[in-house]
Every structure is written in C-alpha cells, then in structure tokens.
Amino acid sequence: MNILETRAITYEYRGGITALHNVSVTVPRNGCVALLGSNGAGKSTLMKHFNGIITAKSGEVLVDGERVSKENLRVVRQKIGMVFQNPDDQIFAPTVWEDIAFGPTNLGLSPEAIQERVHQSLQLLEVEHLADRPPHHLSGGEKKRVAIAGILAMNPDILVLDEPTSGLDPVGIRELVGLLRRLVQTRQISLMFSTHHVDLVPDLARYVYVMHAGEVIGQGTVEEIFADVSLLSRARLDVPILTRLVTSLQNRGVPIKAGYRFEDVEQALYSLISDKPEMR
Ligand SMILES: Nc1ncnc2c1ncn2[C@@H]1O[C@H](COP(=O)(O)OP(=O)(O)OP(=O)(O)O)[C@@H](O)[C@H]1O
C-alpha cells in the first residue's frame, strides 16, 4: 500500500489564485520521491495538504490508505514528518535536546523512551555535539539537521522535506544529501522532498514528479525524466550537469553509456579509459 497519495487535488488561494490543478502523486512504502519544480510551481502548497495544514477545494489526500480528515489529523501527523523550508518555524525550545524531545514527550512516551529517541536522532543527524546549545544560535545547516532530528524522533513512516537544501552552502548540501541517503538505507522510512536543484535528484530519488504552474507535467524514473530535455525546459528547469556532459560526449561520438549519478558516470568514463591502454 502507498504511504501517501493525493488524488486530483485542486487548491485556490484567496483572490482566486489556482495554485494546484488536478495534482495526483503517490509515494510507495520505502519509496524516495522527488517533487521537482521551479519557483511558484506549487510544491509547498501541495505538501501543506499532506498533514492537513490546508484543505483541497476538490480531490483527496490519503495517508497509509486513510483519507485525511479533521478526525484523523492526530494519527496522520504521527505518520507524516514534515520539515518546512525555514527551520526557524519548527525550532522553539531553549536547547536542541529539549527541542528534539518535544515530539516524543507529546506522544506520551516514558522518560527512558524519550531519552532513547532523542539520543538516536541526535546520532543519526550527527548533531550530538549541539545537544545543549540554544537552537536559535545555530547556523542554517545545523538548524536544518536539528529540525529533521526533531521530526525523526517521532518515528514517522514518511519524511516530507520542503526544499531541504535551501540556504545551505555546497558542503552543507553534500553532507545533508549523504545523511538522507544513509537514513533511507538504514531505516524503514519513505522520503518525499521538493527541490528545483536537478543535480540533487538522482542522488536521493528513484521516482520524480515534475510540477509546473500548479500541475504535474511529467512523472517517471530518474532516467526517464532526465532523458526528457524538452520536459525540463517546459518546467523551467536545468538539465543536470552530468547529463549535459554525457550527452555532449555522445554527440562527439564517444560511446559512453547514459548515467545520472556521479558514481555511474565515473564508472562509465573509467571503463572507457581502461579500454584504451595508452590512456592508463
Ligand atoms: N498565501 C498565499 N496566498 C496567495 N497565493 C499564494 C500563497 N502562497 C503561495 N501562493 C501562490 O501559489 C503558487 C504556488 O506557490 P508555492 O509556494 O506552492 O510554490 P513552490 O513550488 O513551493 O515555490 P518555491 O520553489 O518558490 O517555494 C504561486 O503562484 C504562489 O504565488
């Protein structure tokens, strides 16, 4: 069963702005799904439907097979861990430790269980050294990790991250992507994230929805989406740098296999070079 599904969601902001039109997306259990779209595509608006922050004009949202309604919001919010773009919106306790303990405490867990959850989350996000610090004095990247740790401490079935890399420097982005990759590999958790950074997607996602002007204009595997240059251009998105490199080499007659992840392209280039003794 899918952990998360929207069926033909349409949403209008006040003033008649249609931010979403007939949007249907699914995240299977243990799936890693990217919501790819440029500014104003409707990504944040869609995500706000998942845990009932806003309600669609038409269409429905299902979490773990149950239609989201006022009556089941508490259960839904336990299953869906949302991390918003601005971590300041989510961090409010005097110390990082207390902040991460807030969710498990609200779930009514025993002090030992809370201790265990906080400890695990601090470890997973590699922020143990920040446990006693006031969250508001942390850097943007540290705050982001603390916000994710706080959500993970509630043991959600799916982690939903709105623009997880916004405001991070290149090293911060690389570190966060590495952490998230390890997280989905080591824990039974699904992931959906939104972004306009095409280069980020192959490293984290297996399936991609491309949004533009409030609609899903394309969906498919990473390979299918990044092979469709006209789709990316309609969505006002870049072609990933590795795709550009491989396509350019192919156009010059180099027999290199298409690849979207750094490791794949590195291996493909290495194989080509290894076949030519003069280049070794
Ligand atoms: N509170 C609001 N009131 C009116 N219109 C809004 C509101 N929030 C968003 N919109 C409009 O809805 C559309 C979708 O916005 P949304 O924030 O969901 O896009 P996004 O894909 O998350 O963009 P970004 O990448 O810039 O964060 C945009 O046209 C935006 O101007």
Question: Care to give the gist of this entry?
Answer:
The protein is of the alpha/beta class.
| CATH-defined superfamily of the largest domain | P-loop containing nucleotide triphosphate hydrolases
What small molecules accompany the polymer chains?
A: adenosine-5'-triphosphate
Shape: globular
Helix content: 25-40%
User: What would you say the CATH architecture of the largest domain is?
Assistant: 3-Layer(aba) Sandwich
What is the terminal separation in angstroms?
50 Å
Element string (H = helix, E = strand): EEEHEEHEHHHEHEHEEHHHH
Strand order, sheet with most strands: 6-7-8-3-9-10
Would you report the number of β strands? 10
CATH topology of the largest domain: Rossmann fold
**Tally of alpha and pi helices:** 11
In the CATH scheme, the class of the largest domain would be: Alpha Beta
How much is the radius of gyration in Å? 20 Å
Q: Would you identify the regions where 5 or more consecutive residues have pLDDT less than 50? A: none
Structural class of the secondary elements? alpha/beta
Average predicted local confidence, pLDDT: 91
β-strand percent reads 15-25%
Largest sheet, if any? 6 strands, mixed
The figure for the number of domains is: 2
